[in-house]
Every structure is written in structure tokens, then in C-alpha cells.
Amino acid sequence: MTDTLHIVGGGMAGSEAAWQAANMGVQVVIHEMRPQVGTFAHQTGLLGEMVCSNSFRSDDSEQNAVGLLHWEMRAANGLIMATADKHRLPAGGALAVDRDPFAQTVTDTLMEHPNISVEYGEITELPQSGSWIFATGPLTSSTLGQAIAAETGAEALAFFDAIAPIVYYDSIDMERAWMQSRYDKGETEEERTAYLNCPMDKAQYDAFIDALLAADKTEFHEGETAGYFDGCLPIEVMAERGRETLRHGPMKPVGLTNPHQPDVKAHAVVQLRRDNKLGTLYNIVGFQTKMKYGAQTEVFKMIPGLENASFARLGGIHRNTFLNSPTLLDGQMRLRSRPNVRFAGQITGVEGYVESAAMGLLAGRMAAAELLGGSLDTPPATTAMGALITHISGGADAKTFQPMNVNFGLFPPVDGLKSGRRGRKDRYKAYTDRAKTDWQAWLAPQAAIA
Ligand SMILES: Cc1cc2nc3c(=O)[nH]c(=O)nc-3n(C[C@H](O)[C@H](O)[C@H](O)COP(=O)(O)OP(=O)(O)OC[C@H]3O[C@@H](n4cnc5c(N)ncnc54)[C@H](O)[C@@H]3O)c2cc1C
């Protein structure tokens, strides 16, 4: 007889965590606040509700990182994937689902499981004892949010994301861009060359501002802006405040010398900063935006050096409760300051239905293993699951940490393969082949209990 695992939040992550732990023989209680307490986005009291689009994105497990995550979750008997497959709708290479029967099936399957019970009501505190997983998502209730902030420190819990686009380093044209920190500041050579700079002349800057102003933008959802603060303005809003605002803000050209044209003073400079320890990803500094995705790729490719950029993720600003996981969570998804509490799902700083469910799968298995008297190693960073958990629990830069989709920039490179756009197909295949082998090897010893 083991202790009970309590899971707070029956969304993508909580539902998957419950399923995995219950299948390992652990008694699980899901605490879900809906329908008593709602959010601005959820419409029902069902578990596993999809709050917006009905897509789980690409299902290509050979050439796409989210497709690979699908594959890994299927291999681990994932509830969210099995239910998505059951209610699949035609959508080309994407996995789209019929949302109402999907959530109904997730709810029924969990309710029928002999090891799972559901208690409805809001949890408002972090408990001192027992084994808990908090999977309360981007719209965590405000009372619980305050309790989490009291434990972690207010600066380690965000209520909005401010996502600047992230570019694959190997898609940047270094014949035009160069590495240099403003005024060569820094103690070490690495610090003095921490930024990647893309210069603009006046004509390029003017065209860029025109494009920013004209681009299609998304609106906040109704009810989403409560608590939104002015400190992190979208780049296009800065441009609306005056054509020169960006040149005096994130695009100021001072303290930098372009080694490709040392005698030419840039009119404006776009800076990118390393986003992960591997150095495969760079974010465009200060470029959080509400532009629509299609518009973003068009506008950002106007930046000299980014003409052929591949984006690991595009920018956005959303209502989104998330932890500064690199400072707070260990590789077992436990709160370092209170190891009886794990976090899973979007609140850990992953982004998307699939990524949230994936982190639920890991948290559920890890918590159950611990309750059964053992432990599970963190999956290797060469797998999609492992790449994500490694990123949020330490691979990402804690100072600039923002929610992350799964993407190949999170994976350790495979040696001996061609970089850049031309080698992409072979490279992605090598990543996914390696991931599948390593994921199977991680799962194999658990087969007896899962
Ligand atoms: C408006 C909006 C639109 C989004 N659209 C998309 C999209 O189109 N595609 C995509 O891939 N991702 C989208 N996301 C991001 C994210 O992937 C989803 O929110 C996803 O559902 C996150 O999974 P989760 O399990 O972490 O959280 P959720 O699925 O939100 O589950 C959290 C659960 O916890 C419950 N809860 C919260 N607080 C408490 C409490 N104190 N006590 C008990 N229960 C509590 C909630 O009621 C909810 O059921 C969107 C997010 C938002 C906010």
C-alpha cells in the first residue's frame, strides 16, 4: 500500500500525469476547480479541455520535433495521444481532434480507472506533506498563484509571457551579422561577444518600421488583460509611439562596430542573445510582439542577416502563469525548496498542449516511481522529452526564461552532419532516429510497471 498522489489541475498535464501514475499502481486523486471555479478560456467542467485551437500540430515524427514528441508519448502509452488518435479529424500532416468527444473520453477514461478519483474544488495552498503535482496551467487560480509566489518569491512567478522570436543560430548569415556586446563590456571573451548584431541603414530601418506598423496583429482574448502591465510593450506598439522610438530602445546602434564594414555607422542594430547553453538558439532582444505569425516571419526576415532565418519559435504576449523553472525545479520536476511538490505542464515554462501533456507524463511517472520506493532517471536530452525537461530545469538562461515549444534547437547536435538549411532534412532524421532509440531504452526498464 503506497501513499496517494494528489494532482492539482485536470488539464492536459494533470490528466496525463494521473493516467501514468495510476497505471503504475499508485492511488491518484485529481483536484479540479472547474466547474465550481472557471477561467476566462475554459468552457466546460471536463478534464483535458482544449482551450483554443483543436490542433496538436505536426504528426511527422521524422522531420518535426513536436511530431517526435507525439511518437514518444504514444510509445509510453500516453492517454492524451491515444485519445487524440481516437478522435482525429482530417488535417493534412497535422493532428487535429474533435475537441468535445476528446475531452469527454479523457474524462470518462480517468473516472473509470480503478486507481483514480476526482475531487472538485479549488486548491489554494502548497501542502507541507504528501506527494503533490501542481498542473494548474497558464490560468492558475489567483489565490493559488499568490501561494506559489509566496513560496518561490514574486519575481520567480510570471503572470504574462513576453516572448521574443527565437532563431536557429545556423540559419543566421554571419557574413552580415557579427558577435559583440555593447561597448565590448564583460570580463571574459565570451561575455564581450555575447550578442549577435544585425545592422540596418536608414532605408532598411524605415522600411522595417513601415512593415511593423502595417502588419496584422492579434488581439488579447476577452478577460485576458487583467493585470497586464506596461513594462513589456510589444515592439509594434513601441513603433506606434514614434518612428525613432526603437532606434532609442532595443535597436539603438551605439557601442558597436561592424567588422564587415568598420567605417560605416549603422543607423539601427537588432541584437540577438543566446537562448540556451548549447548555443543553437538566439532570441531577438526586446522583440516581444502581438503580430500574427505569418506577418512576423515576413517582417523579421527584413532584418539584414536574418533573410533566411529559421524560427524555433515566434513571438507572443499572453496571459500565462509560469515559474522560473531553471532556478526552481530539479531534473525530477520537484520544487527544490519543497521536494514533496512537483510541477507539470504549461506552468513549468513549456508551451502548448502537447508539451504540457508531455511534462505531465514525466511528472506522473517520476512521482509514482518515488511513491513505489524507487526513482526514475531524467530521460536523456537526446529525446524530445529529455530535451524539454533539460531546458526548463537548467538548460535555459534563467534571466531571460520564457515559455518554450519543443524544437530541434534544444537537442544536442549530432556530430558530423552538415549545418544550415541544406543539411536540415538529414539532420532532423538523425535527431529523431537517435531520440527514438534513446527513448525506447529509457522506457524499457519501466515496462514491467507501466
Ligand atoms: C487562452 C489560451 C489559449 C491557448 N491556446 C493554445 C492552442 O491553441 N494550442 C496550444 O497548443 N496551446 C494553447 N495554449 C497553451 C497551453 O498549451 C494550454 O493552455 C494547455 O491546456 C496547458 O496545459 P496544462 O495542463 O498545463 O493546463 P490546463 O490545460 O489549463 O489545465 C490546468 C487545469 O488546472 C485547473 N486549475 C487551475 N487552478 C486550479 C486550482 N487552484 N485548483 C484546482 N484546479 C485548478 C484548471 O481549471 C485547468 O483544468 C493556450 C493557453 C491559453 C491561456
UniProtKB/TrEMBL annotation:
<feature type="binding site">
    <location>
        <begin position="9"/>
        <end position="14"/>
    </location>
    <ligand>
        <name>FAD</name>
    </ligand>
</feature>
<dbReference type="Pfam" id="PF01134">
    <property type="entry name" value="GIDA"/>
</dbReference>
<dbReference type="InterPro" id="IPR036188">
    <property type="entry name" value="FAD/NAD-bd_sf"/>
</dbReference>
<keyword id="KW-0520">NAD</keyword>
<dbReference type="InterPro" id="IPR002218">
    <property type="entry name" value="MnmG-rel"/>
</dbReference>
<dbReference type="InterPro" id="IPR004417">
    <property type="entry name" value="TrmFO"/>
</dbReference>
<dbReference type="InterPro" id="IPR020595">
    <property type="entry name" value="MnmG-rel_CS"/>
</dbReference>
<keyword id="KW-0285">Flavoprotein</keyword>
<feature type="domain" description="MnmG N-terminal">
    <location>
        <begin position="5"/>
        <end position="373"/>
    </location>
</feature>
<keyword id="KW-0819">tRNA processing</keyword>
<comment type="function">
    <text>NAD-binding protein involved in the addition of a carboxymethylaminomethyl (cmnm) group at the wobble position (U34) of certain tRNAs, forming tRNA-cmnm(5)s(2)U34.</text>
</comment>
<dbReference type="GO" id="GO:0005829">
    <property type="term" value="C:cytosol"/>
</dbReference>
<keyword id="KW-0274">FAD</keyword>
<comment type="function">
    <text>Catalyzes the folate-dependent formation of 5-methyl-uridine at position 54 (M-5-U54) in all tRNAs.</text>
</comment>
<keyword id="KW-0808">Transferase</keyword>
<dbReference type="InterPro" id="IPR040131">
    <property type="entry name" value="MnmG_N"/>
</dbReference>
<dbReference type="GO" id="GO:0050660">
    <property type="term" value="F:flavin adenine dinucleotide binding"/>
</dbReference>
<comment type="similarity">
    <text>Belongs to the MnmG family. TrmFO subfamily.</text>
</comment>
<protein>
    <recommendedName>
        <fullName>Methylenetetrahydrofolate--tRNA-(uracil-5-)-methyltransferase TrmFO</fullName>
        <ecNumber>2.1.1.74</ecNumber>
    </recommendedName>
</protein>
<dbReference type="GO" id="GO:0030488">
    <property type="term" value="P:tRNA methylation"/>
</dbReference>
<keyword id="KW-0489">Methyltransferase</keyword>
<dbReference type="GO" id="GO:0002098">
    <property type="term" value="P:tRNA wobble uridine modification"/>
</dbReference>
<keyword id="KW-0963">Cytoplasm</keyword>
<dbReference type="GO" id="GO:0047151">
    <property type="term" value="F:tRNA (uracil(54)-C5)-methyltransferase activity, 5,10-methylenetetrahydrofolate-dependent"/>
</dbReference>
<keyword id="KW-0521">NADP</keyword>
